[in-house]
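Minutes, structural biology subgroup

Action item carried over from last meeting: produce the structure token record for EamA domain-containing protein (Pseudoneobacillus rhizosphaerae). EB confirmed the sequence was re-checked against the source entry. Recorded below for completeness.
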Amino acid sequence: MKTWHYALIVLLGGSSYGILSTVVKLAYSNGFTMTQVSGSQLITGTLLLWLTVLFTKRKKLGLAQIVKLLVSGIPVGLTSVFYYQALQTLDASLAIVFLFQFVWIGTLLEWLIGRKKPTSSKIISIVILLIGTVFSSGLLTGGMTELPWIGIMWGMLSAITFSAFIYISSSVGNELPPVQKSAILSTGGLMTVMVLFPPTFLLNINELSGLVPYGFLLGLFGVVLPPVLFAIGMPRVGVGLGTILAAAELPVAVIMSAIILAEQVTIIQWVGVVVILGGIYVGNLNLSFVKTVPSMNSSTLKKKEA
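Output recorded by EB:
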């Protein structure tokens, strides 16, 4: 395949995440609860992944490796719970903005835990991202005063746990086939949700039959497709371009909430979306000018000395 094919694959992976909030809102409008929605997503997604593992290449693991991956999957379950709690009180177009803060939270974790100081482009990117968040959240129009703070809290918690998942999962199981690794991580997330909220809804056939379509869509677009598509495309397009392409989740979430859920998205919020995407782009720029100026000056001095 050509490079743009892999870029399209990563774009589809990012877009998949953007679909979730709209599906969850539709499930809520039909009377389903957060417990039912998050549980059905992880059950369906995990089953689909393990079915795929049966027909793909896999590697034998020791008990210690399995436990490590299962523990690494805990943030997956928590992110689902926190984000879907936020969607109970926030519009889909706003909830995604708070989840999206994982960009700067992840950088902070990398600095504090990994001792990796952020680059100049990263810091500039974070500043732009925060400016975009101000626009998207409705703060400039006074909309933040009308937002339930409990929703904001759940949204920010989802960003923290999602950042933790990205940080932890990037350092474990990298030697495994992508589908096998994703299956074990999602199993850890499923176990977490089941401990917090026992899936009693599985005993009610009437509820289960109505929940299946939502669980399938959420499992497919939230648990199966993103990690698999990223594993295929990211190595080919690179982390820089890959991050930009994966950011498609935000505009997709906003567009779907405006079209399907008929949520009101103001021009200022659209400006915020564009600013956030611009911030991610800046974060992936190679500030080559800053890096090349010293070498240019030193070479110039050498010529003068000669």
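Discussion: The radius of gyration is 21 Å.
Next step: EB to file the record with the rest of the batch.
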